[in-house]
Amino acid sequence: MYADLTIVGLFVFIYSAIAGGVERTPLTGPIVFTAFGLALGPVGLGWLHLGIDREGLRTLAELTLALVLFTDAANANLSVLGKSWRIPERLLGMGLPLTILLGFAVGVLLFPELGWFEIAILATMLAPTDAALGKAVVTNASVPPDVREGLNVESGLNDGICVPILLALLALATGVEQYRLGFSLGYFAEAIGIGVAVGVAVTLTAIGLLRLSTRHGWITETWRQLPVVALALSCFALAQLLGGSGFIAAFAGGLLFGALAKQEKHALLLAAEGTGDTLALMTWVVFGAGVVGQTVGYFSWSVLLYAMLSLTLIRMLPVYLSLRGLPLRANAKLFIGWFGPRGLASIVFGIMVFSADLPGGDTLSVALVCTILLSILLHGLTANPLVALLARASRRDGEIR
C-alpha cells in the first residue's frame, strides 16, 4: 500500500506542477493518466498494484462523473443555452436513439456470436458521451458558444437517459428480477423525474443555507472549499437512493446552482473542479493499470473495427442527421459528431453488465475497453487542432457576414 501511495502521490504532485504545460501540447490528462497506469501496472513495470475491484472502480467513476457533471452544468452559459436549446434537444431526442440503433446494426454484422440483446446492450453502453473526457472542448472559449453548450448539455443528460434503457435490455437478456424495473416507460420517466426533483430540491436548500451563512459570516475560507463537492455528491447519492438517476440529479443541480449562485459561484466551484480533476486522474490511472493491461491482449479485428466505427460512423451520422435544418454549418455538425468521447459513463455501464454474467460478457467488455481507450487517444490528440480549425472557420464566417 505504501509503495502504491508513494508512486501515485509523486505522480499527482509532478503532474499538478506541469499541468499547464501539458495542456498546451497534443497530450491530455486522461492520455497521460492512462499511459502512466498501464506503464507502471502489472503488465508494464509491475511497480503499481492498485487493489481496487470492479465495484470500487464503478464507485470511483460514478463519483467522478457526478462531480464533473455538476461543475460543468454550473458553468453553463444559460443565456446562450436559451437561444440554442434545439441542439441538445435534437442530439438527445433523435441522435441518441439513432446512435443506439446504428450501433446495434453494425454489431449484428461484426459479432454474429452474440445474441441480439447483448449487441443492443453494447450499443447502449457506448452511446452516452463523457463529460470528463469532453471537458477540454466544452470549456474552450474558442469553440462557438452554441456548439459548446450543446455538447455540455448532451453529455450531462445522455448517460442518465441510457440507464433505464440498459436495465430494460438486461432484463430481457437475463430474466433476472433485479433488472425488470427498467423494462417500463413508467420507470424511465420516474428515474428522470426523481433525478430532476432531487437535484432541484437539494440545491435550492443548499443555496438558502449558503446565503444565510454568507450573510452572517459563518463560512470560512478553509471550509469554502467543500460545499460544492458535498452538494454534488449529495444530489447524486440521494437520487440513486430514491430510485432516480443520480447523474441527471447532479446535472440539474449544477444548472440551478449556476443560475442562482452567480456572485459566489466562481470561488465555490474552483475547489470542486480541482477535486473532480483529481478523481478523474485516479480513475484513469486505475483504468490503465487494472483494466487496459488485462484486456488489450484480447483485442481482435472485429473489436477494433467496431470501436473505430463507434467513434466515427455510428456517432457522427446520427448526429449529422439529427441536426439537419438547424442554422449550423457542416463543419460545426461534424465537430459535434466527432466530439462524442466515451469514458466514465461507459465504464459504469460496463461494470453493471459484467456483473450480470452474460454469455457474451467477455466480448462486450473487450469491445467497451477498446472503444474507451481509442477515445482517450483520438479525442485527446485531436481536441486542440480541431478546436483551432473550427475557431478559424467561425471567424471567417463572421468576417464574410
TrEMBL record:
The keyword Transport applies. One of its GO terms (cellular component) is plasma membrane. Its main location: membrane. GO terms for biological process: proton transmembrane transport. InterPro entries: Cation/H_exchanger_TM, Na+/solute_symporter_sf. The keyword Transmembrane applies. Keywords: Antiport, Cell membrane, Ion transport, Membrane, Transmembrane, Transmembrane helix, Transport. It is a multi-pass membrane protein. This is Sodium:proton antiporter. GO terms for molecular function: antiporter activity. Residues 18-388 form the Cation/H+ exchanger transmembrane domain. The chain crosses the membrane at residues 29-48, 92-112, 188-210, 230-257, 278-297, 303-323, 335-354, 366-391. It is found in: Cell membrane.
